[in-house]
Design goal:
Chain A is an all-alpha fold. Chain A is built from 14 helices and no strands. The two termini of chain A are 14 Å apart. By secondary structure, chain B is mainly α. Chain B is built from twelve helices and no strands. Classes of the chains: A mainly alpha, B mainly alpha.
């Protein structure tokens, strides 16, 4: 009974902190929108408007209200999914984001799958061979990943694998020949072409996705392998490993079943965070690869001072961050019996 | 030499100065054992020297080129890194660009580290609702996507190197606050803090003079480890056209300028990217080494 109560209290505190974080995010985007040196009234009326016209627009926008009232109005609008209209596309921002988001999701998902499938085994390998060649190799791979500018590596990759070697396709999601023949169902190019059975289009999409996908995969690999190594080292030093060895269990089983299973608990958080990082990192990658996703939408809007779109995009990415944080916390709780 | 070594490593230092020097010497020996960290230090020092001497060692002027004869030349003995679309020598621009990189890194560290230190030590020392409130704000900032937030800040403030620095600083202080708070919590219980409290030192004096100096090493290590991230973020902002504006030889902006020619004249973008890579790698190596030297058990 007391146990239940404590759990309920924990859940309530958790929900409260999530709500507060989200409120903080909204406050920051609202603040950024307010400190814009460009006067939003001036942007609408133009500089030849009279005083009365400007005053009227100011009233219409609610800019004559106290800040707190404005903030509440802003909260109400965001709650209804109203981020305002984009100046650039003149569509509602949310509609734009819904259109471009699948492209980013596809790219980041491919990236994280590559990152996990390669990063975790590499990290385990480095931990088992601590201080030997394999460990150094994984360390160098990680260090390079931490230090290299992602957009530059993308550009150089394009030069080498697209222009010089011709192994992959260039910028964009798919060849122009297929651009309009694919009917968007999910918005994920690979899935859509596979559903339609258009295998030529599927191959084209895959060839466009390969380079940016591998690039993002490498970046998450750098982080995931490093963290896997450190978690594994911690587990391999525990006494239960000694006990398992004494029982005569094979080394492979000890590493993959006993140690990795325990290391997997904190690893879930790492993977969730690097997934969020990939969604964010897409801003630079998408610019390089002309990938029509959320990142490119935000940068395009930035360059055209389209603040509604920028803040809408920031809010969406921020929400995904908070949601992934929440998810990893919940997974952590359900995977680690000690937190129950 | 060996008598100096013995004097420095003495178990019973005769003066404060000997003790302090001895500690620094032991720390240095610990640090210097790590060859890669030493390499990082050398590169960072080289960067400082290059930035200081840029106008004298650069073979050409960084912002004027000869559009008639030296446009988009491949690397050669006259132009080691080639020339860009304005006919400017890329090596000269890289050398001058090191000043901007150092400027950004130093300023962000000087802005963000004190904020983090102050927030963290105050939260840790005061406890109670001050702690709860400050840490809540820190957590909120930690949960944000840093690059996107910096982008939005720069979009609001207007592009430019100063605004980029400000935006990066605003988004990078929370980890320092976390570290400083954790350190403060362990120091707060120490006897010498009770002693200065009994003497009648004010809370401000205790936090500023007695707690903060002790938090400094771990914050410095973290700042060094973050330097690479700061350089990459600044370069990213420059690449998107939101950081330093042309014709400033900022490395990220130089990559952006080379992007248009990358398929045929790859060297325009290759040089600046290599420079960013080497410098952030150096900071990563240096940070790793510092962390291992100061806290041998904390290293993964």
């Amino acid at each position: 009974m007391r146990f239940q109560k404590a759990r309920l209290k924990g859940a309530a505190r958790f929900a409260f902190s999530v709500a507060l974080t989200y409120l903080g995010l909204l406050a920051v985007t609202f603040f950024i929108g307010r400190v814009v040196p460009v006067d939003p009234v001036l942007a609408i009326t133009g500089d030849r408007a009279t005083e009365e016209q400007m005053a009227r627009v100011r009233t219409e926008l609610g800019l004559d209200q106290p800040l707190l009232t404005q903030f509440c109005v802003y909260l109400g609008k965001v709650a209804q999914g109203d981020f305002g209209n984009s100046v650039l596309t003149s569509n509602p921002v949310l509609e734009d984001i819904r259109r471009v988001f699948p492209a980013t999701l596809e790219l980041a998902t491919v990236g994280i799958i590559i990152g996990v499938l390669m990063g975790v085994p590499l990290g385990v390998w480095a931990a088992v061979r601590r201080g030997r060649f394999a460990d150094q190799l994984v360390r160098v791979m990680g260090l390079v990943g931490y230090s290299v500018p992602i957009f530059w590596l993308g550009l150089m990759g394009l030069v080498l694998f697209y222009a010089k070697l011709g192994w992959v396709s260039g910028p964009g999601r798919i060849d122009i020949a297929f651009e309009y023949s694919v009917t968007p169902v999910t918005g994920l190019m690979l899935v859509d072409t596979a559903i339609a059975g258009e295998w030529a289009a599927f191959r084209s999409a895959l060839s466009h996705l390969a380079l940016p996908g591998l690039l993002l995969g490498y970046f998450s690999l750098a982080y995931i392998s490093r963290m896997t190594r450190s978690f594994m080292l911690k587990e391999l030093g525990q006494e239960y490993i000694v006990a398992a060895r004494a029982k005569g269990i094979s080394e492979a089983r000890i590493i993959w079943r006993h140690a990795l299973r325990n290391a997997a608990v904190p690893l879930v958080t790492v993977i969730a965070l690097s997934y969020a990082g990939l969604l964010e990192g897409s801003v630079l990658t998408e610019t390089v690869f002309a990938w029509p996703g959320l990142g490119q939408y935000i940068t395009n809007s930035l360059q055209n001072a389209d603040m509604n779109a920028v803040l809408g995009g920031t809010l969406v990415v921020g929400s995904i961050f908070i949601a992934l944080n929440l998810l990893s916390d919940l997974l952590y709780r359900s995977l680690d019996p000690r937190t129950r | 030499m060996s008598s100096l070594h013995l004097w420095l490593m003495s178990e019973r230092p005769a003066s404060r100065r000997q003790a302090a020097l001895g500690r620094a010497y032991a720390g240095w020996r610990n640090f210097a054992r790590n060859r890669l960290a030493l390499l990082g230090l050398v590169i960072v020092l080289a960067l400082v020297v290059i930035a200081a001497l840029a106008p004298w060692i650069a073979p050409y002027a960084p912002d004027v080129g000869d559009l008639m004869t030296t446009r988009l030349l491949p690397p050669s003995s006259a132009h080691l890194f080639g020339t860009d679309d304005q006919g400017r020598d890329i090596l000269s621009r890289l050398l001058h660009g090191s000043r901007i990189t150092l400027f950004v890194v130093t300023l962000v560290a000087l802005l963000a580290a004190p904020i983090g230190l102050l927030v963290g030590t105050l939260a840790g020392y005061c406890g109670g609702w001050v702690d709860a409130a400050l840490m809540r704000v820190t957590d909120i900032f930690l949960a944000f996507p840093r690059l996107i937030l910096a982008l939005a800040f720069v979009a609001a403030l207007g592009p430019g190197i100063e605004n980029a620095v400000l935006a990066i600083a605003i988004t990078s202080w929370p980890p320092y606050a976390r570290i400083a708070r954790a350190e403060t919590l362990t120091i707060r219980q120490a006897d010498f803090i009770s002693a200065v409290q009994l003497i009648g030192a004010s809370p401000w004096r205790i936090v500023l003079r007695h707690i903060m100096p002790l938090c400094l090493p771990s914050v410095i290590v973290r700042v060094t480890l973050d330097m690479a991230g700061i350089i990459l973020t600044a370069a990213g902002l420059g690449f998107l056209g939101l950081g330093a504006q042309p014709p400033m030889p900022e490395w990220g902006a130089m990559i952006a300028a080379g992007r248009a020619y990358v398929l045929d004249q790859w060297w325009v973008a290759a040089g600046p990217g290599l420079a960013i890579f080497i410098v952030s790698l150096a900071f990563n190596l240096l940070g790793d080494g510092l962390r291992d030297a100061l806290d041998p058990k904390g290293s993964p």
